[in-house]
């Protein structure tokens, strides 16, 4: 039992020695960290508001480029009367639909776009979903309708309504407006389905 008492102080000394070396190392790290913090405080470009502002500006530019690519593709597919979606839009699919395939083509010809779209885009800002495509189409439709309203202005017009069944035997109604423009020509414009 006396032998056990003699060993206890040696163990405590070893713990104290290890602890003191760790404390010295930690104090050295704190001093180094403090000096780095002081240098960063002096350096205006490292201030958090400037870093966030710079990052936010870059993110805004990236998002604008992504949405511009999507808008241009929707515009082209719309004018060409092409379908947007494919049956299988998974990344491993051979044909993912016209919209995604066109975006890949655009990315292959433009490095700046390629670096920001599809797999390189953040999950919350790809701007390729079906909802985004529909929203862009609705914006185009509102612009066309606004242009038609501007063309009609105060002219007299008539509304032509027609109904037809599609292949699935679902009835669809179309609205066409006929009016006389400022030059005296009769015009017809498709309004809605």
Automatic annotation (TrEMBL):
Q: Pfam families annotated for this entry?
A: DUF4371
Q: Where is the DUF4371 domain?
A: 38-192
In the record, which residues are listed under signal peptide? none
Give the top-rank taxon of the lineage listed in the UniProt record for this protein: Eukaryota
**Which InterPro entries does the UniProt entry name for this protein?**
DUF4371
Name of this protein: DUF4371 domain-containing protein
């Amino acid at each position: 039992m006396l032998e056990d008492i003699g060993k206890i102080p040696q163990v405590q000394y070893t713990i104290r020695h290890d602890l003191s070396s760790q404390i010295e190392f930690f104090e050295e790290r704190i001093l180094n960290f403090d000096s780095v913090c002081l240098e960063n405080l002096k350096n205006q470009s490292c201030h958090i508001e400037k870093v966030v502002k710079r990052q936010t500006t870059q993110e805004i530019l990236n998002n604008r480029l992504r949405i511009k690519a999507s808008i241009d593709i929707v515009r082209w597919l719309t004018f060409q009367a092409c379908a947007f979606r494919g049956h299988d839009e998974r990344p491993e699919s051979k044909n993912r639909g016209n919209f995604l395939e066109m975006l890949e083509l655009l990315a292959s010809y433009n490095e700046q776009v390629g670096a920001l779209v599809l797999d390189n885009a953040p999950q919350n800002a790809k701007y390729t979903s079906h909802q985004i495509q529909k929203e862009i189409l609705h914006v185009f439709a509102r612009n066309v309708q606004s242009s038609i309203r501007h063309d009609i202005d105060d002219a007299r017009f008539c509304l032509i309504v027609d109904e037809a069944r599609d292949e699935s035997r679902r009835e669809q109604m179309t609205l066409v407006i006929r009016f006389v423009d400022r030059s005296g020509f009769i015009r017809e414009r498709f309004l809605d389905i």
